[in-house]
Design goal:
Layout (H helix, E strand, L loop, with lengths): L3 H63 L7 E2 L20 E8 L2 E8 L4 H12 L6 E2 L2 E3 L7 E4 L12 E2 L15 E4 L12 E4 L12 E7 L1 H9 L2 E3 L7 E4 L4 E7 L1
Antiparallel strand pairs: 1-7, 2-3, 2-13, 3-10, 4-13, 5-6, 5-12, 6-9, 8-9, 8-10, 11-12
Length: 259
């Protein structure tokens, strides 16, 4: 028969086992909580990454659909704005613009391609709508003696240094032959972001030119008019630049209107 001492010892061991069991259960509970919080944290992180990826994808899709965010037309501090600045937001990047061009030498039609140079086409269309080109001369012509044949217009002063009073960045072509005969492109001073209102018509292939000029479209009708002007020759004012000068037959843009 167990003595009183043995009974107390047995009760003590039972109590210790109960305490150990409770401590073990508490450790297991804490471990389960820690595991659950860890899983929840991973789920939250994964959800955040997913939402960021979805938003980024949606933003990219929106930008692709609407084209460039806008065009950066900057007022030229050396001259006054002739007709203001073109709209710079939500510039179309698809479609064409047809311009009817009446000149003192005969009619032409320009077909502008928005996808080729959206900001340049947007500016060209704006200037035509404002009547900016009307009554302005085509001040420069080059012949094959200069290496390429162009008729350059778009400067109301006729000096080659005038314009609409603003400048913007070039949109260089990527084609291997960006300036075939009939190309309509924007002139610039050779410096970055110096495209303005002046443009040139390639009445021969201009493949010798570097791809530094934004291509806005083509002369879809009336290229023969430019060739007739070129046939009359140029008046060279700088002997170091043969085949480059003002057209011998003066040419005026009577009107340039959006069809």
């Amino acid at each position: 028969m167990a003595t009183e001492k043995q009974r107390r010892e047995a009760a003590r061991r039972k109590l210790e086992r109960q305490i150990e069991r409770r401590e073990e259960l508490e450790r297991q509970r804490k471990n389960r909580l820690a595991w659950m919080w860890g899983v929840a944290g991973l789920v939250v992180v994964a959800l955040v990454i997913f939402l960021v990826a979805v938003n980024t994808s949606d933003s990219g899709s929106d930008n692709q659909a609407s084209g460039p965010e806008g065009c950066d037309y900057q007022a030229d501090p050396t001259s006054d704005l002739a007709v203001g600045l073109p709209p710079a937001e939500d510039v179309p990047t698809e479609g064409t613009v047809t311009l009817n061009v009446a000149t003192s030498a005969g009619p032409m039609v320009f077909s502008l391609d928005r996808a080729s140079a959206p900001c340049a086409v947007n500016s060209f269309e704006f200037l035509a709508q404002q009547g900016f080109f009307d009554g302005s001369p085509c001040h420069r012509m080059t012949t094959e003696e200069a290496g390429f044949g162009v008729l350059q217009c778009g400067d109301p002063t006729g000096t080659g240094s005038g314009g609409a009073g603003y400048r913007y960045a070039e949109e260089p072509p990527t084609s291997s032959d960006p300036y075939p005969e009939g190309t309509l492109a924007m002139a610039n001073s050779g410096q970055p972001s110096s495209t303005g209102s002046q443009f040139f018509i390639c009445y021969t292939s201009c493949s010798s030119l570097p791809p530094n000029y934004s291509v806005v479209g083509t002369v879809s009708e009336g290229l023969d008019v430019v060739k007739q002007i070129a046939a009359a020759g140029v008046t060279v004012t700088d002997p170091s630049r043969p085949g480059d000068g003002a057209p011998t037959t003066p040419v005026t843009l009577d009107s340039v209107t959006v069809a």
